Amino acid sequence: MKTQKAIGFIVLAGAGLFSLSLATGAWAADMPDAADAAEMADMAYTNKLVDTCTQCHQRDGDSDDPNMPIIGGYSAAYIISSMTAYKNEVRSCPEIEYISDHKKVEKTDMCRISKELSEDDIAKLAQYYASKRFRRANQSFDLELARKGQLIHERDCEKCHSEGGNLASDDAGILAGQWMPYLKQQFFAFYAEKRQLDKKMKPKFNKLDKTEIEALLNFYASRGGL
Ligand code: HEC
Ligand code: HEC
Question: Which of 26, 56, 122, 184 reaches 20 to 30 Å from 34, CA-CA?
């Protein structure tokens, strides 16, 4: 009797192990593993963050409003540095009127928006927009002014805004194909010292007169493709 019982136990234990390993196999095939699940939760979280930007910058950051900068395709480093500047209020935050979901005109600004975000949120958003393509705005420009602007750009700006202001990896924004009204506002903000200028950009920038600025704006509106 004793021996039989012992054998029965071993067989049962063996069957138990077998069915357990089968179950594990089926579970592994049908369900994402822990790493995939974490990645999916991360994506869902990032998408929620992006929802709060879409009203003004569009889903892919290719804003169709000339007063809202296109941010899809910018480098992550540039997005992080601008959002941090807004968060710390070292960059001016013009108030923005927008139509809310409740069809009411509401006001906000980039400083208030950035203050609600953690460093990690900003990094996630930066990664998201950096993975998109920069869709250059289609806007009219004056060809003669653009040609003048190209010469000024090559003399004073190309060093840091290379390929006619087209290169995201310069970490200095993308000027070629950015909305002209937005860029114009940034020129004024630099002048009025409401936005900090790169130390080396300052002397080049401050010597520009009004017509040279107009010329540069028209060159960037031509998307650097004259
Ligand atoms: C209500 C409209 C609105 C919302 C919502 C909004 N933005 Fe903006 N954003 C703007 C405007 C307008 C500017 C330009 C402000 C200025 O003149 O500095 C701007 C500027 C920026 C810039 C700087 C662009 C540059 O070329 O330097 C970044 C980056 C940016 N926003 C990211 C975001 C992100 C990320 C979100 C969501 C968390 C967001 N914005 C939500 C309107 C908005
Ligand atoms: C020594 C390098 C350097 C030079 C030269 C330079 N820039 Fe810049 N520029 C930068 C950097 C860095 C930034 C990003 C600043 C920031 O993070 O706020 C920038 C940002 C800008 C922006 C804001 C872009 C945005 O998306 O908001 C404009 C506009 C601009 N530069 C125009 C010019 C023009 C026009 C010239 C030539 C007259 C020029 N820059 C020369 C380094 C330079």
Answer: 122
Ligand nearest to the CA of 61: 1
What average pLDDT does the segment 60-70 reach? 96
pLDDT, position 199? 86
Proximal ligand: closest to the CA of 184: 2
Cα 4 to ligand 1 centre (Å): 77
Average pLDDT, the chain: 87
Ligand 2 pocket test, candidate residues 71, 122, 155, 161, most atoms within 8 A of CB: 161
| 184: its two tokens | 């114009």
Residue 83 alpha carbon, nearest atom of ligand 1 = 29
- Measured by CA distance, the residue closest to atom 40 of ligand 1 is 53
Domains and CATH numbers, the chain: 34-130 (1.10.760.10), 143-221 (1.10.760.10)
Cα separation, 208 vs 192, whole angstroms = 14
Q: Locate tokens 């090559």: which residue? A: 154
Three-point CA angle 199, 214, 166, nearest 5°: 60
Q: Are 107 and 97 in contact (CB under 8 A)?
A: yes
d(CA 96, CA 98): 6
Bridge partners of 107, per DSSP, are 97
pTM confidence score: 0.87
Does residue 110 have its Cβ closer than 6 Å to ligand 2? no
Local confidence band at 9 (pLDDT 50, 70, 90 cut-offs): very low
* Exposure string over 207-220, b if 16+ CB within 10 A, otherwise e: ebeeebbbbbbbbb
